Fold these 4 entries.
Entry 1:
Amino acid sequence: MSKFKVIIAEKMDIRGIELLQNQFDVDVCIGISREELLKRIHDYDALLVRSATQVNDELLEKATKLRIVGRAGNGTDNIDIHAATKKGVIVANTPESNSISACELGIALMMACARDVSVADKDMKAGKWSRNSFEGVELYNKTLGIIGLGRIGSLMATRMKAFGMKIVAYDPYISDERFSRFGVKKAENLDDLLKVSDFITIHTPRTEETIDMISFDEIDKMKDNVILVNVARGKIVNEDALYQGLKGGKIRGAGIDVHAVEPRYESPLYEFDNFIPTPHIGANTSEAQENVGIAIAQQVSNGLNGEIVETA
Ligand code: NAD
Ligand code: MLT
């Protein structure tokens, strides 16, 4: 019997690749163009992606042999799960494997904004010693507003309590018990969180409801000099509103890992020194990539071997 064929379309840890190579015919085609993928997908039983490959009707129609799509990571907003399920294609992801890394990047961005790390770095490398122009803010005793108290939001709560922050969270989909378990004050609505938070960090999925969740009105309602962090998904923060919030000085700093358009090479937001962007690197640590690579390879292997798969 011929072996199942697997195509890996985006960067994945070698340990995961090896796990698959031990059982299947694997084509490692990292960075394959869309055109090429559409041309070749009919030949494969499994497809592995991260967040850049759109697995939609266009691709699924051509994927006549496909049994499983493995999303090496958490968010599945690049995959049309409904369309895949209708075609009998399993969609699997690895929601836990990179949560700590994403959370830690959020903390790094929060602190970089609070202490102007990116401007200080740029100044010194430009030959300046502008020590007196920097006056940061402490995290201690400040209120951190967490939007979405799921896996990453709750990791954030636990960690930032150790910094002496007061934590308030808004998440209409979880029980009161979860708020108390993490020692977090529950905001009954988003406005309540916006009004009291010195720092705001977003940890929701991107859904119809969360797109533009932070826009002009919401930024208006925030405290002056707020620091805003988004390592969740692009478009949850409206970028025009963010521009205005930075321009008008309402927002002290914004640490943003995820963008309305990815990849992104230019943006009006780049005029602000206190806008600190990173190129969607929340999960880019050796630990997370190893965890994710092995976990998704195992899921895909289970799917092809007829074992149980935890579906996304
Ligand atoms: P999760 O599903 O564990 O938690 C999300 C939480 O958001 C849930 O508790 C849910 O109830 C809540 N939520 C949903 N809609 C909401 C709304 N309208 N208002 C308030 N809360 C709402 O997800 P997670 O694993 O914590 O991931 C959070 C986000 O981080 C996702 O968007 C994920 O794709 C993203 N992520 C990004 C990176 C990165 O590289 N930057 C890495 C991992 C995850
Ligand atoms: C995720 O959802 O897991 C992150 O966006 C990171 C990734 O895609 O690798």
Entry 2:
Amino acid sequence: LRSPCRVFHEHPRLLASDLYSQYESVRRGEQEMPKYFNFASDVLDKWSEIEKAGKRPSNPAFWWINGKGGEVKWSFEELGFLSRKVANVLTKVCGLQKGDRIVVILPRIPEWWLVNVACMRAGIVLIPGISQLTAKDILYRLQASKATCIITNDTLAPAVDSVASECQFLKTKLIVSKGSREGCDPGHDEESRVLLHNIQDPACIFFTSGTTGSPKMAEHSQSSLGFRPLLSERYWLDLTPSDVIWNTADTGWILTSLASLFDPWVFGSCIFIHHLPQIESAAILNTLSRHPVGTLVGAPTLFRMLVQNDLSSYKFMNLKHCVSGGEPVNPEVMEQWKSKTGLDIHEIYGQTETGIICSVFKGMKIKPGSMGKAAPFYDVQIIDKNANILPPGQEGEIAIRNKPIRPLGFFSKYIDNPKKTAASERGDFFVTGDRGTMDEDGYFWFIGRDDDIIISSGYRIGPFEVESALTEHPAVAETAVVSSPDPLRGEVVKAFVVLSSTFSCGDLESLALELQEHVKKTTAPYKYPRKMEFVQQLPKTATGKIKRNELRNKEWGRM
Ligand code: ATP
Ligand code: MG
């Protein structure tokens, strides 16, 4: 596997550092990728040495608060020490071996990070799960993944117990809990043997969000997660060892592995976490005012929620860079955030399968509504049904070239699903299932998931543009736009609208008319929603994404 990254600008500060110099020739494409790699020993333990030599700023590697006075701060050295202990528990007490699979369903507590690093040390394949999972979801994940071990907390333990007997592969259940249990000896702290992992060995399995159906299991390798950021430079996060980054996503989402683990730690940065059981505006705004968080990463719902607040009463201590993605970021929200805080929201676009595909890099011209340019390693194109590349401005499917070189950062496969794996390929490309365009400057514009496109009287309408137009209206907090049957037009645009809490309106009928007029004025008139429904909330996945397919199925009577 040859690194396709000769084109990148070198960053002198990075290349000069001890950690990066050894990867410089790989980065330049002069040397093959190494055969073996272990993120824990090759990156984290190196930072520990750099830290010991006094060459890293004094901020912690990991900084956790719970908002109730609880605080944890670890240096890289402490992270190393504690994660070795956990690795010993997993391997010696639980008998887990390299390649074994472990489901980890923990909220944002420090142990989640320890277990991750411990698994990297030992080569155990980690499958993160979201804390809101129900017993049925857990059963599906345990059966589908054939995991032999599960780690969870007191809250979820009863759910795990209720389904454990149906999971024939499950041998060990571990609880992260305050109390100690008899027969459980976490006292091993001897140096564990450094295991060399083949760079293609599996590191993690992520379940996709399940926005369009049952979640799929995407396997990622040691290289796609841990090695990629070593080479890919500072494109989407742009961090240094003195930076503090806070990502509010749930631990079960690949975004957390990227934004709260691999990518910041490659740069020796401090990972900050506020353990919030629920995403709460006031708590988040207070934390940003009292802690030196420089980079904030969150789903668009986070920013949609934050701009609903009076931000003039908060003064952020150090916030400089905001990143959002996972679903479209409405330009209106970006504008409001900018006018209230002076900060831009940098959009990222990605998938569980691929990591970050496009992003708005720091310092790059922002075109609101665009997801930015292709990320390093990715040759992103808009293609047609026959895998022909379409010219700028033309709508098609967003795809990434994966032949002859599979990009670093890509998943290896869908587990136990060769059909799905094969269906995601077309010609020399991996197809995302999303539609979009690229402009003359190489910026990508999201139109919608293939299934979400509405075809009304022969016009193709992407829901996102209509949603963005609606969100511009002060009455609208959130909205989802789907197709709805119509005898004349085949299908028409229907908007489900959640009203803003600060907006009071008695007459919903005239508000609906006003919103329709507003859309006609803001975007091409044929896109306006002919049907409207006001709702209290929208159906969402556990990762906070709007489930348009659920709304659409209801419209079409396909429940
Ligand atoms: P499933 O594949 O199980 O149906 P999912 O596709 O939502 O669920 P993820 O891998 O979490 O699972 O999400 C990737 C998808 O999220 C992308 O394919 C795209 O549709 C959407 N997405 C991510 N970032 C953006 C963005 N910036 N703008 C628009 N859509 C985005
Ligand atoms: Mg998907």
Entry 3:
Amino acid sequence: QPLLQVNDLRAKILESGVEILHGVNLTVNEGEVHAIMGKNGSGKSTFAKVLVGHPDYEVTGGSVVFKGENLLEMEPEERSLAGLFMSFQSPVEIPGVSNDEFLVMAYNARRRKLGLPELGPLECFSYLMEKLQLVNMKPDFLNRNVNEGFSGGERKRNEILQLAVLGADLAILDEIDSGLDVDALRDVANAVNRIRAPKNSLMMITHYRRILDLLNPTHVHVMDKGKIARTGDISIVETIETEGYETVAALT
Ligand code: ADP
Ligand code: MG
Ligand code: MG
């Protein structure tokens, strides 16, 4: 049984009623790394947000099965507790809630869901420190208010820290590499590689080859006009770079 099975998924923007996803098909098995590429506006972020249950969108057709369950019937929080991760950083800063408080709340909620006892304050602290080292971040990061004054690069690192702390069967990373300089990109990619477990899967949306070379996707998809137009291995990236997305999407 695949980890994630998406069949003919259609979704519209709730407010305007405009359909953005016109029948997406995708199968992700345990341990696979899927890259989703495609030009701006092709529906990549919408696809990711629909999977995690973002309230701006309404599913109008198709099905999504995650770990044998109907994902579309689950609340966003249930999806996350079930092991589907997408960064939950909000564009708004949350004054008064520190990053560590936020992470601990989310992690203990997931432990409850998994039937594990909650961690006490001291255990939480050492757990967070361990993960912080894994993603190579400074401890002062934890005391900051959630998203308050984070630079672009810090937000990306924080996203990886969230993933390291929570763990996930399937993590969706939407343009984790955008706006990072070469060194920061390598750090982020290394951190992702360190927190990966053999059975866990990754779906990453990106425009750039560099992060793909660091994360070794097993599958590369090209999204075009709300559908996955083409699927292959890393060699597709070469064709995209020389021929462009339009040509690659048309080559079916
Ligand atoms: P990508 O991530 O591939 O660049 P998006 O999924 O962000 O593409 O967007 C696909 C299309 O849907 C774009 O035309 C975008 O403007 C539109 N869109 C997506 N979400 C919304 C929204 N919440 N409100 C209005 N338009 C949206
Ligand atoms: Mg975009
Ligand atoms: Mg996008």
Entry 4:
Amino acid sequence: KGRVALVTGASVGIGAAVARALVQQGMKVVGCARNVDKIEKLAAECQSAGYSGTLIPYKCDLSNEEEILSMFSAIKTLHQGVDVCINNAGLAHNEPLLSGRTDGWRNMIDVNVLALAICTREAYQSMKERNVDDGHIININSMGGHRMVASSDEHFYCATKYAVTALTEGLRQELREAKTHIRATCISPGIVETEFAFRHHNNDPEKAAAVYESIKCLKAEDIASAVRYVLSAPPHVQIGDVQLRPVEQVS
Ligand code: NJP
């Protein structure tokens, strides 16, 4: 309660659900994405619902480091700094290894990996300079970051999520070496019904619907509940990875 959380990719899907859940719990949440109008709408909804926290929309293209650094500098000026960083923004372009476009691969690396690393570094520095020892960095990973469950159009995406697995474990080790109690956790979902599959299939509604109609999918709110669970763990408990799949998901 009263702590400042940054949620990346808060305009729709999992990020929007997480932002809403944390505002409901009384946190001051900076939600960022490119479509800031959607976060503004969510902020108004949270206010009308009488939630005790606040949602502060921030427009940021996470594939641009300068924009990320400006955002952290604005958070420092306006809200002192970040206590909780939820690296949620991510995407899967449909670009197989044998035929995909380099631009699509680069965009996945920029958002899924580089932006996550930059936000992690900046959030840690913000915690360190304010002696915040109970901070938390949560990375929204994927089942695809633990095993190659995907079809060929998702191999590159899986590679970026394997990187998230490695970075979260590396972060946990670096935090210990720095003698801080700041924690690092991955949350790894299976299929969640959001805009993810629409974007993956270039907004082809039939292909996306086929993904979401094939089984009873997770909801974005299920992932928000996992975030709340992770944040509610006692300070001595390090939750490394939470894996959630729909019951009907096979692989
Ligand atoms: O996806 P979606 P999810 N700069 O498409 C933002 C992982 N995951 O909520 O900029 C800034 O509804 C985008 O904002 P906007 C997945 O890998 C999902 O399902 O306005 N923001 C939007 O808010 C990802 O890490 C599933 O377009 C950028 C958000 O990202 C996380 O869950 C399964 C951006 C994407 O919302 C959230 O995905 C799984 C940029 N350049 C893992 N580019 C699943 N849904 O099935 C994108 O295993 N965003």
